[in-house]
Automatic annotation (TrEMBL):
The keyword ATP-binding applies. This is ATP-dependent RNA helicase. A motif (Q motif) lies at residues 40-68. Its EC number is 3.6.4.13. GO terms for molecular function: ATP binding; hydrolase activity; RNA binding; RNA helicase activity; translation initiation factor activity. Belongs to the DEAD box helicase family. eIF4A subfamily. Keywords: ATP-binding, Helicase, Hydrolase, Initiation factor, Nucleotide-binding, Protein biosynthesis, RNA-binding. It holds the Pfam family DEAD. Residues 40-68 form the DEAD-box RNA helicase Q domain. RNA helicase.
Amino acid sequence: MAGLAPEGSQFNASQYDSKMNDLLSSDGQDFFTSYDEVYDSFDAMGLQENLLRGIYAYGFEKPSAIQQRGIVPFCKGLDVIQQAQSGTGKTATFCSGILQQLDYSLTHCQALVLAPTRELAQQIEKVMRALGDYLGVKVHACVGGTSVREDQRILSSGVHVVVGTPGRVFDMLRRQSLQPDYIKMFVLDEADEMLSRGFKDQLLPSKIQVGVFSATMPPEALEITRKFMNKP
């Protein structure tokens, strides 16, 4: 696969190509990972007590396969690519990883989650808000069809996480209502639909943790991930 890793990255090109070839050749039924540790319970993951309270209050009892393998690497600040079918717990995986790492003493946006549709962005916002209920997380969905002024008002008051669609998020960045300076985590949900937009390269800091989540991962999407991920 062609492409250049970011400057200063610990990217291992041969290992990446090997893993991506495995992913492309799989039928979607097998689960494989480059991360060795598997956690059979949420309690074993070293999560904050108030995050665990939110997870259990939401109704989770035992982590799904992707949660067993995906939450802790994200919490450790690793770049991740995770492919799993819809309904397997992808959203709670990256929401938990984000919530674990936020500095709640700062009222700056520290995590940006992009989704291809308004409905999905609003769904993610609800999950993030529910899981982070006992942490006091401030999350806002920036999506089309809603008031631009209201978005600006909420962003100016301070949020920890922004979930949104590319058009509205780009508009908030252009208006400088959303400042990228403190963003340290960036997640693409339904990445197969999102990566071709070139959004991350244009707008976000070079040193940022990236999470890519999708039910499907076509070759062109994986090729683009190589340009901006650090040792996924």
